[in-house]
What we know:
By secondary structure, the chain is an alpha+beta fold.
Amino acid sequence: MIEEIYSAVLGNMRVAYSLDTDTRLIGLCVLPLTDKTMYERRARVHSLAEAKIIGDDYPDGYFGGESMKYGETTLSLKFDAQEVEEKDGETRITTRLASDKGLKINHILTHRAGRGYVKIKTELENGTGDDIRLEMLSTFALWNISPYLDGSGENSMLLHRIRGKWSCEGRLVSETLEDLQLEECWCGANSKSVRFGQVGSMPVKGYFPFAAVEDVKNGVIWGVQMQAPSSWQMEATRADDGVCISGGLADREFGHWIKTVKKGETFSGMEAAVSACLGGIDDVCAALTEAQEDALCVPDCEESLPVIFNEYCTTWGNPSHENVARILDALDGRGIDYFVIDCGWFKKDGVRWDISMGDYVPSDTLFPEGIDKTAELITAHGMRAGIWFEIENVGRMTEAYNNTAHLLKRDGLTLTTRSRRFWDMNDEWVTRYLDERVIEFLKRNKFGYIKVDYNDTIGIGCDDEDSLGEGLRKNMLASAEYFKRMRKEIPDLVIENCASGGNRLEPYFMSLSSMASFSDAHECVEIPIIAASLHRVVLPRQCQIWCVIRKDDSLKRIAYSVSAAFLGRMCLSGDVTELSEVQWDMIRHGIDFYKKAVPIIKRGKTRILGTRIRSFRHPDGYMAVVRENDDGALIVVHCFENAPSEVRVDIRGFSVKDVYPPTADIRLCADGAVIRRTEDWSGYGVLLTRSEKSK
Length: 695
């Protein structure tokens, strides 16, 4: 028999804990507040915590190699107790599980008043009296999705995932459960799991640590986004009428992970944000990214979302005092706040930048009077000076590359890709080295901004007494600790999180950074599509978007590029020393518009409308992004090939505050905003103020 033993209303959600009185397994449902009918369904309780210890039985039902759920360890963890604590506007529900052998799990759910998400983490306590070897531990598990469907809910549910690859980050993939073969079998005896995730030190190179299950018939959606600085996994599982979604660290099968937990020790994975709401994908994503907003800790200078200039797409890895000085002269009075010297400032004569990082001695050829003089010049032009580092990796043409005692190993050999090796970030010698080459460098030369790049992946992991996956996990947590160390040593330091563009766009590294490079799509037509897609998993205020202007760009092309930067943080680059004043005037209007839009970019809720974009590289039709908050709204429209002659956006109760480009033909009418006389490959911005009666 299944009995609901506790429930609580948390914001616009209800959390419900259900106990199978026969097995003593306890499951968790997170539900939106709604009067929709809930059905009695053929669904067994799925434990809110999954674990697997070496030596315990694995699951049956052909799960081997597909999932490590439902094994002996999980089934042995029975409900023990539950505690609820309310303090300082936060509710904390701790559910305790215990096995006869002395293994314990604390499942901790927290909710902050007024928020549309809950946070979940799982702690495992080893009270067995012996060391155990853990090979799987979930962070979260939700069961009985969707209780608003009668029976199996055929053709009514979608699994949403977000894909990522180099220069094509953020692609939403939505599939029916039937297409994923997540239908119950004819006899109900065989479960099916779809396990996905990412292995390595680029945690969003394949998928983002995100999943959502949507009941399209009833307009209800469940979503989760995990912290995932290293290998991770999620699973959608079907064993009966209901669907279970779960996830955590990548397990032994998926991520080569085993962890020894000594007797008396406690081990915990990372946190997950979970939400359930009425609506669709953009609604649940707005709730989940709210968790990232709450985790932000940035310098005061970041509150105005300053405009950035990065010289990479101007010099292509060849910065020098001379060309920086020339660029600075061109930027005078243009509204730029930060100036970033990108890669190459350290390279030896005749050697490429991408095999030269690691020693970090400024080039005497490129900076003959010292790089401090260049930083001083940037400051004298009224901008914060920034500089590029790749602190965790070293290139093959450096002395650091041969310092193998302090580099990561696999199979006892130095872990080497074609051009890079990796520092052991847990090595105290490496910490001291980086303190001198990075932190002291920044202090000495008065750089207030660091772009931390990361241009290769460790892959399955590195040597560790437990496993390759555990070695990787420890190393990436140590990397994250160094981000914290930089901020501690330089409290107002602006940190940009970059990994070949967007390969580290996950919540934990984002919480340690002011912003991130959204992609290595520098001047492609798909930039606005990528930028808009990333609203679902990254705060726009943290998403730095390339706005590269070329001397041959038409005014229409400039407006296309500039308006894409309204979807996040504006980062200019390109042929700025060769632009005409007419071209600069178009850019200036865009910078002015961007600065007016900052309050909405910082805080708001996003809707993505328009044509279904099948190809990022060759898009058809148009895209309209609407972002609203209590005071106003921002509409950003991009027209691609075969665009309509006008674009209508359903938005009401506003008046126009500003438009971009200034010549755009934009009108408000009874059913919304209309952008008229649109053309292929054009971009527009509309800034709206909410009318008094609609506030």
